[in-house]
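TL;DR need C-alpha cells for one chain.
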Amino acid sequence: MKIQFSKKCEGYIWYSDQPEPQIIGAEVYVLELDNNKNPFVVEGQIYSESEQKSVSIKYVDGKYIVKKYDLREIVGKVCNEKSFIPQRLGGVAKIKFRQYWKEQEDEFCEGMKTLVPAECVFMGFSNHQI
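>> reply
TL;DR here they are.
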C-alpha cells in the first residue's frame, strides 16, 4: 500500500527497530507499506493542512490498519479539538487531534439520539521544532 502526500505534511512514523518515532516535516512524502517487510511501521500519524488529509497507521497482528481522512468530506460534523503532550517526540510540545462525534439512538435514553465518539483524526503538531 502506498501513502503519498504531494504538499507540505507533518507527523511521525515509528519503525519497529527504533526506540522512538521519526518526525516527518516534508514538502513531499511517500511511504510504502508491505505486511511482510521488516522493519515495519508500528504506528504513524501524518497530516497535510494544505491537502486537508490525515492518515493514521497501525500495525496489528501482522497487518496494517490504515485510515485515511479527507477533512473536506467531514466538514460540519460535530467535533472538538484535543491535544496531548507526547513522551517520545523531541522538539514537539503537543500533538493535536480532532475528535468527531456521531448521533446514535440510545436504548437507555428511551431511544433518543445521543452523541458517541466516532473518528479521532490527527491534526499535526503545535509548538514544534522540526
